[in-house]
Amino acid sequence: MSRLSSCLGAALVAGAALGAAPASADIDDWTEVPEFHPSPENFGIELRIGMYRPEGLGDEFFSGNYFGGDVGPHLSLQFHYYPFQVPYLGLFGIGASLGWSQWDTLRPGGGAVDTERNVFELLVLQPMVLWRFDTLAREVGIPIVLTPKIGWDFARWLTSPGTPANPSPAGLSMGFRFSGKVSLELDFIEPRAARQLDEAWGINHSELFVEFYYSMAGEILAGELPVSGWGWAAGLGFTF
Amino acid sequence: MRPTTLCSFLLAGLAASTLAAPASAQGIQVTVRSMTSRTRVQLVDFATQMATPINFAECESATIGFRFSMVDRNRTQLAFFFGSMCEQASVRNDVTNTSCTDLELSYAIDLRTQVDVDIPVSSLLDCTQGMSGVRTIYVLALNDPTSEVGAAGQNASFPMAFDFQGPTEPSGFTARNGQSGTSVSWQATTDRVQRYDAFLVPGGCDASGNLTTDAFDDPDNPTVSPYTTFEGTATSGTISFPSGSAEGSTFAVTVRAIDNAGNTGTVAEPVCVTLITIDTFWSAYCGTADAPEACSSSCAAGPARSGAPAPWALLALAAALGLTRRRRSR
C-alpha cells in the first residue's frame, strides 16, 4: 500500500511538472511582435495645388497685356478607387478630379473710361483610369510610388467681359489628359505611427507628391476653345 | 354662529370678491399687429415695431393696427390724446390742461377686454414734410364719451418716432464709360443713410452726351424705378449695363439716398455714360479675321452642359460598391 502510494505520488508530481511546462513557455514569448495585418487599400484621395498654362490660347493670353502677370493658381481634389490589386504591379483603378483655375487682370482705364477686371476661369471635371505602381515601396523598401493616369477633361471655361454682344462668353472644351505622378510615401519617417494610423483610421499610406500633366481639352473636337496646355500639381495624398 | 349668519357672511364675501374685480384691472397694454407700409405683421410690442421712425410716405398713407388689451370691462370708450400729463383725469374732469391735446379719435370697445383698431398714421401725427422727432400718444379708457376718466391704470401711452426729412442730394456724382457696366462714385450725405438707389435709363442721353430723358425733371420724384441699390453707406459702386446692350448705347445714370426711416432724397445731377468696347483678352482673341470657331459658338455664361455629370455618377456608384465590399472584407 505504501509502495502504491509512493507510485501515485510520483506520478502526480511528474504530471504536475509536465502540465506546468507549457505555462513557462508562454512567459518566454512576451518579446514576440504580433503580426501586422494592413487594412484593405481600395481608395485614394489627393489635395492638390499647382499651376496650369492653357497654351492653346496662344501667346497673347500670357502677354503682359492680359494674363501674363497672373500665376493662375490651380486647385483640385482627386478621388481614386482601386478595385484591382496585382502582386508586384500595384493597384489599378479609376478616379475623378475636380479642379479650378483662374486668371485675372485689370484692363487700364483713364479719363472717362472705366478700368475693367478681365477674368478667365476654368472648372475641370475629369474621370480617369490610373495605375499605382507601388512595388518599389512594398517589395524593395524604397518609399517611391509612380502613378500614370489617363483621363478625359470636361473643361468648363468662362471669361468676362467678352464683347458688348456677348459680355460673358462661356463654353465646354473636352479632351484627353495624360499625367504622371511621383509620390514619396511618408511611412518610413515613423513606421509605428503609420501602422497606428492604419489600425485606427484605416489609412494605409500618406504621401507627398508632384504631378505633371498635359491636357488636350479643345484640341480634339471641332469648334471648342483650345484650353489645352501643360500643368503641374503638388500636394498631400492618402490611400485607405 | 347661526346658519343664517354663516350664509350671510359667505354671500358677503362672494359679493366683495366680485366687486373687487374691476379694481384689480391692470393698465392698458398696447401692442402693434401690423403696419400697412411694412412687411412685418406679427404681433409685437410697440418698441420693437416702431424702432424705425415713421417716414413721410408712411405718415400720409399707412395705417397701424393696434391691439389694446386689459381694458376694464366697465369702460366703453377709447380716446386718444397727445402731449403730456394726459394720464391724469384732468381731460374729462373739466380741468384745463393745455399740454394735453385731444386727437379726436374715439373707439367704442363694446365691453370687451381686447380690441383691435386700425388707425391711420395721419390721425396720430402731423404729416408736415421736414419735421422729425417723437410724439407721445395717450390712450384713455372712459365710461362714455362724456364721463370722467376712470380708475388709475385705465390709460396707456406710447411714443411714435417720426422723420419726415428726406436726405440731401449726393454731391460730386461721377460715372465713367465702360463695357460691362459703369463705375459710379459720390460724396456721402450727412444724413443717417440706409442705402443708395441707383437709376439707369437706357437711351437717356444723345450721342453727344446730353441728357434727353425727362425721368429726372422732378429730382425728388423720378418717374423711373431704381435700377439697383447700394446697401449701407457706400459711396461708390458699379452699375452693370443691361445684357444685350450694344456698343455705343447711352445711359443716363444717377443715385439718391434713402435714410434709415425710408425717406427718399433728391437725385444727384444725372450723368451720361456710353457702352464702349474695352480691350480685353476675349476681344483681342476673337477680334482677328481668323478667329477660332469657338468665338462665335460660345454661349453666354450659364449652366454647364448636361453631359458632364454622367462620369461622376458612374464613379460615385463605383465608390459606393467599393466601400460596401471593403466593409464586408473586414
SSE layout and pairings?
The complex is a heterodimer of chains A (240) and B (330).
Chain A: H1 2-28, E1 43-53, H2 59-62, E2 73-86, E3 90-107, E4 116-132, H3 135-140, E5 144-160, E6 169-185, H4 191-201, E7 205-215, E8 229-239
Antiparallel strand pairs in A: 1-2, 1-8, 2-3, 3-4, 4-5, 5-6, 6-7, 7-8
Chain B: H1 3-23, E1 29-35, E2 44-45, H2 46-49, E3 54-55, H3 56-61, E4 63-69, E5 77-83, E6 100-108, E7 114-120, H4 121-124, E8 132-142, E9 155-163, E10 171-175, E11 181-187, E12 193-202, E13 228-231, E14 236-240, E15 250-259, E16 271-274, H5 281-286, H6 293-297, E17 299-300, H7 309-329
Parallel strand pairs in B: 3-9
Antiparallel strand pairs in B: 1-2, 1-4, 4-7, 5-6, 5-8, 8-9, 10-11, 11-14, 12-13, 12-15, 15-16
Summarize the structure.
By secondary structure, chain A is α+β, with helices and mostly antiparallel strands. In chain A, 20% of the residues lie in helices and 48% in strands.
